[in-house]
């Protein structure tokens, strides 16, 4: 009886993933049109357009245009202070829900696999993967690689709690439903050395924008994967239409801190140009980079969804994670000006904010003067590209359409 239960449980993730793949195949087929018009789904998730193709944008003029260079003062990886802010604010509001959305939108991990999480940060994506894999088969593993010590410290702190529970499980023979174990390594992806052909699957959620040498970093992912293995990459779309970051950018400019704009917008500048509004340029670059590293069957989809903050004050904390965040916040006069502008802009311009509960001008200035934001819940749209590809089965790349789902 116990054996049967275990067997059924063991196969559950596989069946779940199989159904997911079948659904995914059907939904990708539905989205095969190159660029479709805006449409909403009942789940609240919005599919604005889908770009599903192989190499359709390769050779377009965008990669040859000279991108606006990123400021040389842009300082990534994240410091320990930024990492703490990231874990306490950004992870819950943005990265954990988007990690889940990302994993749900691309082929899911299967029980028993060894999965690589590239630029794993504080582990939001790794934990989502580990929860799907489960610990029942005792083979499933997640390995997270990140260049920031502070981020990895935060991730390890969380993993220690599960490690304790797993050890207790072993001792008592209890059968708690626990996630697969995760190990983390601090090393830039460009310098990471791994045994070849050892991972069954890899993910990179909002990290590829920061690679200093994309070709080296992506080639290292490629080498570490088994033939046929899937690789999924998420990068934010250009900032246009992502109100929170548009407002933060405008506040920096109005506070005469334009030099920080390229740093703020780095996560939204995969094409290399922080002023670019072209989604095609970003997709083109992503696809080119993946193919250059050796991957095939590259599909890119675009997704938009709301991110929710409890208040304007909470939304403002996003700035504390930026490399210039501490400098901005430690200058009391500058930060007061920045905060006032931010709240005013969000309350007046942010079309996503507190829908249907707009404040009158008097009320607004009163609230901003008194330093309160009235507890307004903030709902802002974020937009991301999800790329999906695979390592060829054999050198030279034997194409297999069955791996396109
Ligand atoms: C926005 S965070 C995303 C973290 C995580 N994937 C998530 O979704 O929460 C970007 C991460 O990329 C890491 N990173 C930046 N450059 C890197 C590199 N060259 N190699 C590995 N990690 C890098 C940073 O340290 C940071 O943790």
From TrEMBL:
Gene3D superfamilies: Vaccinia Virus protein VP39. Residues 115-228 form the Methyltransferase domain. InterPro entries: Methyltransf_25 (IPR041698), SAM-dependent_MTases_sf (IPR029063). Residues 353-375 are annotated as: Disordered. Residues 355-366 have a biased composition (Basic and acidic residues). It comes from the Eukaryota. Pfam families: Methyltransf_25. This is Methyltransferase domain-containing protein.
């Amino acid at each position: 009886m116990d054996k049967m239960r275990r067997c059924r449980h063991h196969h559950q993730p596989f069946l779940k993933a199989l159904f997911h793949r079948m659904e995914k195949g059907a939904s990708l087929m539905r989205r095969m049109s190159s660029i479709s018009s805006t449409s909403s789904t009942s789940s609240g998730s919005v599919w604005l357009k889908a770009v599903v193709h192989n190499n359709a944008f390769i050779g377009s003029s965008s990669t040859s245009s000279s991108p606006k260079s990123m400021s040389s003062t842009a300082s990534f990886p994240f410091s320990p202070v930024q990492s703490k802010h990231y874990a306490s604010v950004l992870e819950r509001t943005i990265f954990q829900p988007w990690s889940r959305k990302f994993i749900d939108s691309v082929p899911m991990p299967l029980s028993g696999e060894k999965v690589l999480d590239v630029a794993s940060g504080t582990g939001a994506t790794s934990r989502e993967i580990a929860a799907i894999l489960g610990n029942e088969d005792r083979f499933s593993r997640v390995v997270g690689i990140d260049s920031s010590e502070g981020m990895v410290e935060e991730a390890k702190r969380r993993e220690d709690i599960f490690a304790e529970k797993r050890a207790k499980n072993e001792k008592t023979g209890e059968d708690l439903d626990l996630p697969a174990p995760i190990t983390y390594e601090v090393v830039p992806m460009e310098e990471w050395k791994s045994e070849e052909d050892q991972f069954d699957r890899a993910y990179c959620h909002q990290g590829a924008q920061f690679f200093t040498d994309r070709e080296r970093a992506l080639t290292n992912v490629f080498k570490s994967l088994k033939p046929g293995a899937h690789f999924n990459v998420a990068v934010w779309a250009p900032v246009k239409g992502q109100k929170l970051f548009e407002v933060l950018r405008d506040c920096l400019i109005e506070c005469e801190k334009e030099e920080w704009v390229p740093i703020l917008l780095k996560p939204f500048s995969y094409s290399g140009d922080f002023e670019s509004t072209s989604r095609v340029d970003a997709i083109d670059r992503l696809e080119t980079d993946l193919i250059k590293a050796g991957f095939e069957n590259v599909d890119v989809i675009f997704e938009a969804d709301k991110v929710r903050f409890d208040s304007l004050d909470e939304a403002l904390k996003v700035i504390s994670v930026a490399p210039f965040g501490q400098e901005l916040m430690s200058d009391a006069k500058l930060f007061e000006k920045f905060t006032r502008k931010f709240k005013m802009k969000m309350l007046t311009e942010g079309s996503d904010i507190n829908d249907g509960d707009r404040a009158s001008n008097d009320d607004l200035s009163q609230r901003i003067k008194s330093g309160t934001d009235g507890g307004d819940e903030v709902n802002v749209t974020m937009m991301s590209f999800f790329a999906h590809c695979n390592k060829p089965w054999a050198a030279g790349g034997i194409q297999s359409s069955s791996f396109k789902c």
